[in-house]
Amino acid sequence: MLEFAVPGGHPVLAPMSLRIAQGDRICLLGPSGIGKTTLLNRLAGLEPGQPRPALRIGYLFQEHRLLPWRTLHDNLRLVGVRSDQVSSLLSQVGLDGYGAHFPDQLSLGMARRAALARCLAVRPELLLLDEPFASLDPHRATELQALIRKLLDRTPHMAMICVTHELRDAAALANRVWYLAGRPAHLRHDGNLGDTPAAVADLARQLETLGQESSAQVRAQQPRTLGPEAADGQR
Ligand SMILES: Nc1ncnc2c1ncn2[C@@H]1O[C@H](COP(=O)(O)OP(=O)(O)OP(=O)(O)O)[C@@H](O)[C@H]1O
């Protein structure tokens, strides 16, 4: 069991205590801008002043963050992959023979898979994926989803948290759903996905309601802007 705490006083996130079991597959959903990436960063120990996490974490950022002036081979060498293991790692993500390519020579989907290979290189106990399917065409997104599914099946003890806007990604990859909402943001839902299409549809309705409540709360907290008449009255 992995335990994480977000302390009080965080500018975006409410205090929370999170428990993640080995092999948990969690999809993290919530309205845009609510703090999903911030929570992943927090879990990865990337926020200022945070200690290094005590477990091995692979983090697939929204951008690939590979060094553009290094080949894929060298990018993987930099995180400790032995030269004779590079090909097999690239092969795991469907990039056989691309070791000599530079990141900018790859399509978005391929670069994301190369970044995924770099995540796997550390043999993560926790894999963090930040919107892995964003900006991919539906065919490429389905392909990447199938690849991630295969990698998860191959590493049953690894836990995963995947940020997404689509509950259908959760249906394909996750056994558990977190929903972040409110300001400061807290987990408004933490539960199993449900085994049947009807249960998933029911969860989708619940999450939509939570999203609407959250948006209303955020709107109510925003400072009111003065319209022209009100502004006149202030002069
Ligand atoms: N330390 C901080 N202090 C103040 N604001 C912050 C801090 N860290 C993040 N934010 C702000 O919090 C908001 C939440 O950002 P975040 O990217 O985590 O949301 P998100 O839910 O991942 O959004 P999206 O779904 O659009 O990717 C952003 O407006 C960001 O600028």
TrEMBL record:
<keyword id="KW-0547">Nucleotide-binding</keyword>
<dbReference type="InterPro" id="IPR003439">
    <property type="entry name" value="ABC_transporter-like_ATP-bd"/>
</dbReference>
<feature type="region of interest" description="Disordered">
    <location>
        <begin position="211"/>
        <end position="235"/>
    </location>
</feature>
<keyword id="KW-0067">ATP-binding</keyword>
<feature type="domain" description="ABC transporter">
    <location>
        <begin position="2"/>
        <end position="207"/>
    </location>
</feature>
<dbReference type="Pfam" id="PF00005">
    <property type="entry name" value="ABC_tran"/>
</dbReference>
<dbReference type="InterPro" id="IPR003593">
    <property type="entry name" value="AAA+_ATPase"/>
</dbReference>
<dbReference type="InterPro" id="IPR017871">
    <property type="entry name" value="ABC_transporter-like_CS"/>
</dbReference>
<dbReference type="GO" id="GO:0005524">
    <property type="term" value="F:ATP binding"/>
</dbReference>
<feature type="compositionally biased region" description="Polar residues">
    <location>
        <begin position="211"/>
        <end position="224"/>
    </location>
</feature>
<protein>
    <submittedName>
        <fullName>ATP-binding cassette domain-containing protein</fullName>
    </submittedName>
</protein>
<dbReference type="InterPro" id="IPR027417">
    <property type="entry name" value="P-loop_NTPase"/>
</dbReference>
<dbReference type="InterPro" id="IPR050166">
    <property type="entry name" value="ABC_transporter_ATP-bind"/>
</dbReference>
<comment type="similarity">
    <text>Belongs to the ABC transporter superfamily.</text>
</comment>
<dbReference type="GO" id="GO:0016887">
    <property type="term" value="F:ATP hydrolysis activity"/>
</dbReference>
<keyword id="KW-0813">Transport</keyword>
